[in-house]
Amino acid sequence: MKHVNSSLTLAICLAALVLAGLACSGNVSTTGPAANNAAVNTSNSTVTKTETTNATPKDIAGEYSAKGTNPDGTGAYEASLLVTKRDDVYQFSWDSKGNKYDGVAVMTDSAVAVAYTDGDNGKGCGVVLYKINSDGSLDGKTGYWGVNTMETEKAVRKSGSDLEGEYEVTGKNPEGKEYKGKLEVAKEGQGYSFDWSAGNTLDGFGIRAGNLVAVGIGGKQCAFVGYDVKPDGTLDGKWGTRTSKTLGTEVATKKK
Prior knowledge:
- It contains 1 helix and 17 strands.
- By secondary structure, it is mainly beta.
- The protein has one domain.
- Strands 2-3-4-5-6-15-16-17 form an 8-stranded antiparallel β-barrel. It has an 8-stranded antiparallel barrel with strand order 7-8-9-10-11-12-13-14.
- A hairpin with a 5-residue loop joins β2 (62-69) and β3 (75-86).
């Protein structure tokens, strides 16, 4: 059975357009990431390149200073970000002048996908990061907030083209139990809807970036963020809501 937290809302995660950020307003915001925003990287650097992947830091844990701009030209913000290694996953904790946000992350190559919500814990949020293989199959890593063991999944497409279609999935949930089921992926706006049936049903919304797809799950209380990890450890990205006309940007620099 695909893992579902007891509090996980089985609804499409309010998702968005493109990588990394904290929601706010004004010239320098006093707030951090808004839980009704979501994002994922569309930078070409997330497409696997041997030289970039090999140079990417293996451990992104640490303290960061983040600066960014909001979508649609609505101002700039600053925040502190603490990334903590939790066995297979990472915990992301933001503080923007007293406004706190918390989430869970998984990493593949130079890409990191995070699901988060406001407050000091990200309970109920989950995120999937798929790598698209040359044969069209998907290799996924899933993180659930409060669970230090990630879930792994293999999805083999049985019909459709490109990313869209019907898949047969096999996986192992965080408790080590194997599961099988179905996955349907369909184009929706600028992203894709994901509908799993694997012992239970689960919905999500994802954005593709090259050969990677980040999918947020957990309902409207959760947002998701994607980062492109640079060789020097900087987290670089863009972000926005599902309705954003232009994207926000963020650079999170690791403190010495």
